[in-house]
UniProtKB/TrEMBL annotation, chains A, B:
It is an enzyme of class 3 (hydrolase). Binds 1 Mg(2+) ion per subunit. Its cofactor is Mg(2+). Signal peptide: none annotated. It is found in: Cytoplasm. CDD domains: RecU-like. It catalyses: Endonucleolytic cleavage at a junction such as a reciprocal single-stranded crossover between two homologous DNA duplexes (Holliday junction). The record marks K84 as: Transition state stabilizer. Residues 1-13 have a biased composition (Polar residues). This is Holliday junction resolvase RecU. Keywords: Cytoplasm, DNA damage, DNA recombination, DNA repair, Endonuclease, Hydrolase, Magnesium, Metal-binding, Nuclease. The gene is recU. The keyword Flavoprotein does not apply.
């Protein structure tokens, strides 16, 4: 027999990108936020212009992204994030992230924007919002010769976990007030004597 | 004989996109702002994976952009704009702008972001930053059956004109404080009895 209620929140083979695009459409259509996935960067080498039909790109190559996957605006604030899936069950491998993406998030953070990662452990069906400020500590650990991943335990500790739902599929904006508050507290503490 | 000083600020065949990318790199490298051109959206139909070399896209098509060309963050503020060139000498044709781009800028404006157009009159070598709030009035005029362009005279009146230079080539961020102040004044006036 069908089990609609327990099936209802399952992933149904969607990629994290699909889930985030659905969620962004939900946010957008309700005036909650305007956040879009950036197109994949392509190096176009050859284009054919057939008579009476659309131009066809006949040779092109994938370029390495110089920024993150998503950015936009929410409650007047600039939001910027990278989405990553892993099949690993116990840790998130840092080789998934490129140097220039870390550099980009660091610049966004310096400008006062909200930068974070959304990590999906696909075998566990678990989703986490990891703020850049927490991520960079583990990234720096790797740079300094430490482990090349963040353990699931660490991610549980440092992130806001998302419970996937229907509308929106992934309500990741709900994690942001917590992240912003944490940041404010830390900045204040750092300024105290 | 060479005339370096009068040639120095000439365009030298660069496109507006080149000029803006140069300017953004300048801003970025100095920590002034983080603003990037979004990649051109492409519909990929076929990809070949040759042994021992990079994947080749062998069939793809240009998609209509659903947002604007550029976005990013400046002084904690979300910035979003569309860049357009015209060869016209007396007006800016509105057919250059797509409905969904206007819709997008309108959403950004509603979220409290700074949305604008950068318009280059290439035959005149003149550049203008036209705030969305001024642009939308002329767009609405067209929707209501009025003229399908904005006259140069109107643009002179409604925009901040940019003087192209060396570093950065187009210092368009310099126009933003004026635009923000104007907006604040208008919002305050609207709230008064
Ligand atoms: Mg990604
Ligand atoms: Mg453009």
């Amino acid at each position: 027999t069908a089990k609609p209620s327990s099936m209802s929140f399952s992933n149904r083979g969607k990629t994290l990108e699909d889930e985030l695009n659905d969620s962004n459409e939900y946010y957008n259509s309700r005036g909650i936020a305007v956040i879009h996935k950036k197109p994949v960067p392509i190096q176009i080498v050859n284009v054919r212009y057939p008579a009476r039909s659309a131009a066809v790109i006949t040779e092109a190559y994938f370029k390495t992204a110089s920024t993150t996957d998503y950015n936009g605006i929410w409650q007047g604030k600039y939001v910027d994030f990278e989405a990553k899936e892993t099949k690993n069950k116990t840790s998130f491998p840092l080789q998934n992230i490129h140097d220039h993406q870390v550099e980009h998030m660091s610049q966004i953070h310096a400008q006062g924007g909200i930068a974070f990662l959304i990590i999906r452990f696909s075998m566990l069906d678990r989703y986490f919002v990891l703020p850049f400020e927490k991520f960079i500590v583990k990234w720096t650990r790797m740079i300094n010769g430490g482990r090349k991943s963040i353990t699931l335990l660490e991610i549980e500790e440092l992130s806001v976990e998302l419970q996937p739902g229907y509308h929106p599929r992934l309500d990741y904006l709900r994690a942001l007030p917590d992240i912003i508050e944490q940041l404010t507290v830390e900045r204040t503490e750092r300024q105290e004597p």
